[in-house]
Every structure is written in structure tokens, then in C-alpha cells.
Amino acid sequence: MSQKSSSTSPGSVVSTETGTAKVPMGKGIGVRGVVFLVAAGAAPLAAAVAVFPVVVSASESPVSPLFFVVAALALAVFAVGFTRMAHEVTDAGAFYDFIRVGLGHVCGRGAATLALVSYALLFVALVGYLGASTASAVEYFTGTVIPWWAWSTVSLFITGVLAYRDIALSTKVLGVSLVLELAIMLVLDFVVVFRGGPEGTTASALNPLHFTDGTPSLGLMFAFFGFVGFEATVIFRSEARNPHRTIPRATYVSIIAIGLFYAFSLFAVAVGTGPNSLVAKATENPQTLVTELAWTFLGVFGRDAVQILVLVSLFGCFLTFHNVLARFTFNFGAAGLLPSALGRAHPRHHAPSRASLAVTAYCLLAIAGSVMLGLDPVLDLYTWFSGAATLGIIVLMALTSLAVIVFFRGHERGSWLTTFIAPTVSLVAFGALVFLVVKNLPLLVGGYGVAVALIAVLAIALAGGAASSLVSRSSARNL
């Protein structure tokens, strides 16, 4: 496997280690298609139902909507260096390709392994949560009890079929699901804000003077979880029309749109419950905070619509990450880090179809193993694996910021703002966030022992990938 880089355009660096830039894939999607993929991956309605109560109760802050504003601003700063680097590195590996080019092959291989493990854990977390939520909804509406793993398997089959085809089909499905879930939540938001809650329509939940009340570090930590997956914009560059324009625009649009939606929606929730009662209600009844608000302001239809569309939201998230993980697997196959057959695009669909089948098979094994071990799909699978995956992705973001700084110090091009100041600020921010997540991971996963085990898995992935690069380079020198 060659370690050399070749240039396809002035100022760009393309590594033959991944080879993704040379593989024609997809029919070409624009900014809107990429944003649909990323926004659906954020699962905005599901995040409103599941994440909002956690942000509020963990922080005990009366101005919780501001945490999403701060998180979006931090990610926008990160995106400055991230998108600038995307002009230089035209592979579709996102974090790990940037880290490889900036910090070297050893760090890059370690980051690649960490990325694959993190997204694989997140994928299993999502299939468990989606199966449990579907089983709960079916029982609520029909009284029929069907085990979660059956619904997880059905969902996996559907996403597998869609991901096997070209990306345009997935974007159409995600576009419909995203419009539906955004519509019901925005209708609820505007009705609440215009009608007013127990304390009227007050902007006290947006008062920055109270930002330090409670435990804002925990609120920020959980707020960042709602943005996981935005980096997928770069992963889809091989299938984007004019990626040098599409990817940066889609990245900024995704961050801003998701951040505004979260902040406005949580503000509406604060108005609906009454800002002074928000923390108490989010702590006492976290699972029903949004659905009960929908019942109060939109009636039974609104509550039922939210419950149904939460499933649509979760499915959209699951489909997005199926596509993301399939492309990671494809890139690894093209790089020779996995069987090369996984790195071949479908001759007709121009999609990573074999990699998609491998992802489906992996998840089926994970479902079967979870059932055999008696793991709870929410308390165990989702809680453990989503917490670990988020930590892994934040570590990758911190390393990416460092890689941007190092790369551009050796390549004197680009403005000081985009190549040093912005990535330095994001390095400090995400380094601090890594510390916060590690410190509070036992709280996230429900136990110290589980937290240590998950951190060990991530550490082994990072160190093992780096070690494999050293071994392969040593073997190549001895040949």
C-alpha cells in the first residue's frame, strides 16, 4: 500500500491510502441533499423529546436554550478550519484523513480505527433505541406487544435496502421524514410562543446574565450530543456536486439550522412549562416533557402525532448513520484496512453496496448478541454506546483541530484566522469538552465500571490503529 500523496488540483492533497477520491460514486447531490442527510442524522424531533429534558435537568439552568446557541457557535468556529482543510484534502474520510495529513500516518491510522469503532457503537445504540421506541408506540396505539429486537431487525432491513442503492434515494426518504418532524415541532413551538404558557410569553429563558446559574458545563456537554453527525458533510463529498462549494456550505447550513431549531424549540418548551417550572418538570417527568406539552397546546392529535413522528425522526437518524458507517467501511476497504472487496462501488448504483451489506450483517450480529446477553435496548445499548461514541467523536474533533494547525504551519497558505486562530480556539474548546465527558461519563452510562470499560475500548481502538500503522511501515521497510 502506497504511502505517497498525489495532487489532483492545485493546492490539494489526496492520499492513495484511502483512494476514495478516485472512485466515482452517486449521481451527485447538492447542498440541500447533504443538509437533509446531516439534519436527519441529528434527529431533531427525537432530540427534542430525549435530549432537551437531560440538558435542563443535568444543568439545572433556567436558560438552557442558550447552551445550544453556544454549542452551535463552537461548532461553527471548528468548521472554519474543518472546511478549509476540506479544500486541501480531497479524500472522503473526514476526521481521520485530515488527521493523517496533518499529524502523520500513524496518528491517522489510529484516528481511522477510532472513527470506525465510534460510529459502529453509535449505530448499535440507535438500532436499540429505535426498536424499543417502536415497540412502545405499537403497544400504546394497538395494545400489541412485539419485542424490540423484531422492530430493530425490520428497521435494519429497510435501511439496508435504501443504503444499498445510490445516495439520492436515501436523501428523498430523509427529506420527507425531516419535513414531517420539523413541521410538527415548529407548529408546536409557534403555538406555544404565541399563546404563552403559565407565565405568559417571556424571554427570561434567554437571559445571558443567568448563564452561569446551575451547572452550565453539564448543560453544554449534553447540548453537544445533539449535533453529533454534522461532520458527515465531508464523508459524502464523493457523491456531492462540486464538493469544494457544496461541502462548506452544507456544513455551515447544518450547524446553524440545527442550532437555531434546538434553541428556539427549547425556548418554546420553557415558555410552555413556565421558565420557573422548567427544571422541576424536566427532572420529574423527562420522558413526557414534550409530549405532554403537545397534548396541552395541540390536543390528543398533537400528542399522538409527536409520538409517531419521533419514530420517523429516529428512522431518519438510523438511515443517515447506516449510510455514514457504510462509507467509512468503504473507505477502509479502498485503503486496504479491511477486505478490498468492501472498497468497490456498485457498477450500476455507484454506491458502497458491499460495505452496506457488511454494516447490515454487523448490526444483525449485534442485535442477536444483545438479546442473548439480555441487554436492555435503552438503559444498556443506547446509554452505554451513545455515550462512548460521543466521546470518541469529540476526541476526533480535538485531534482534527490540532491537525489543521500543524498542516497549515507547514504549508503557508490561507489566512491566519482560518488556519490558526479558529482551529486553536476549537482545540481548546474540544479539549475541555473531552475532559468534561470523561469526568461525567459514569453519569452518562450509569456506572463507573461501564465507563472505564468503554473508555478502554476507545483507547484500544486509537492505540491499536496507530500500532498497526507502525507495524505495516516496519514490514514495508524490511521487504
What does this structure look like?
- The protein has 479 residues and is mostly helical.
- Helices cover 75% and strands 1% of the residues.
- The protein is built from 16 helices and 2 strands.
- It has a two-stranded antiparallel sheet with strand order 1-2.
- Helix 1 crosses helix 12 and helix 2 packs across helix 12.
- The protein is globular.
- The protein starts with a strand and ends with a helix.
- Mean pLDDT is 83; it is low at 1-27.
Proportion of beta-strand residues? under 5%
State the major sheet.
2 strands, antiparallel
Helix-strand makeup class: mainly alpha
Q: Count the beta strands.
A: 2
Q: How many angstroms does the end-to-end distance come to?
A: 13 Å
Taking all Cα atoms into account, the compactness measure Rg is: 22 Å
Features:
single chain, 479 residues, mainly alpha, two-stranded antiparallel ribbon, 16 helices, 2 strands, 1% strand, disordered N terminus
Offer a concise description of the structure.
This protein has 479 residues and is mainly α. Helices cover 75% and strands 1% of the residues. Strands 1-2 form a two-stranded antiparallel ribbon.
